[in-house]
Specification:
The chain has 179 residues and is of the alpha+beta class. It is 16% helix and 51% strand. It has a single domain (22-178), classed as Lipid/polyisoprenoid-binding, YceI-like (Lipocalin, Beta Barrel). It has two helices and ten strands, in the order αβββββαβββββ. The protein has an eight-stranded antiparallel β-barrel.
Length: 179
C-alpha cells in the first residue's frame, strides 16, 4: 500500500513539473504595418493564440486573419476579401522552436524562432529573432520581422501597387502565463 501511494505521488509530482514549463499567451497582439509614399496601412490583432514550452523551446501561434482591426472598415473588407482570401485561408500559423532560450535568465534575452509559417495556403521556413523575458511566473515575447507578400502568393492588384508595400513589418508582443 505504501509503495502504491509513493508511486502515485511520484507520478503526480512528475506531471506537475512537466506541465510547469508550458505557457499560453493571455495578453498581447500581432500587428502589421505597410508603408508607401501614398499610404500607410496598419492593422492589429488582439485575438492571438500561442503556446510556449520553455523546457523544449516549442512555440506555436495561431491567428484568425479576420480578427485584424483597421482604422477604416473598407481596408478590412479589402484585406479579407481581395488579398488574404480569408474565407479560403482563415488562419495564419507558426509552428517551431526557440533556440538559445535560458530558463535561468531574468533579464530580456535574445532568442531565435525557427520553424514553419503558414499563411494564405503557403507554408515557408522562417527564422525570426526576438526577445523573451521572464517576469515573475510569466514570460513576455517581442519580435519584429518583415514578410514579403509574394512569398505567400498574396497578390497586389496593379492598380494599387502604389498603396500597398511589397514587404510588411510584422510585430509580435505577447505575455505568457502558466498553462
Amino acid at each position: 500500500m505504501k509503495t502504491s501511494v509513493f508511486l502515485v505521488a511520484i507520478v503526480l509530482v512528475s506531471v506537475n513539473l512537466a506541465t510547469g514549463q508550458k505557457y499560453k499567451a493571455t495578453k498581447g497582439f500581432v500587428s502589421f504595418f505597410s508603408t508607401t509614399p501614398v499610404e500607410d496601412i496598419k492593422a492589429v490583432n488582439n485575438a492571438v493564440g500561442s503556446l510556449l514550452n520553455t523546457e523544449t523551446g516549442d512555440l506555436v501561434f495561431s491567428i484568425n486573419i479576420s480578427d485584424f482591426q483597421f482604422e477604416q472598415s473598407l481596408m478590412k473588407e479589402h484585406f479579407n476579401e481581395k488579398y488574404m482570401e480569408t474565407e479560403k485561408y482563415p488562419k495564419a500559423r507558426f509552428v517551431g522552436k526557440l533556440t538559445a532560450l535560458r530558463n535561468d535568465v531574468a533579464t530580456a534575452q535574445e532568442v531565435k524562432a525557427t520553424g514553419k509559417m503558414t499563411m494564405h495556403g503557403v507554408t515557408r521556413d522562417i527564422e525570426v529573432t526576438g526577445t523573451l523575458q521572464k517576469t515573475g511566473d510569466a514570460w513576455v515575447m517581442k519580435a519584429k520581422f518583415p514578410v514579403r507578400l509574394k512569398d505567400y502568393q498574396i497578390e497586389i492588384p496593379k492598380l494599387l501597387w502604389e498603396k500597398i508595400a511589397e514587404v510588411v513589418d510584422v510585430t509580435v508582443d505577447l505575455s505568457y502565463s502558466p498553462q
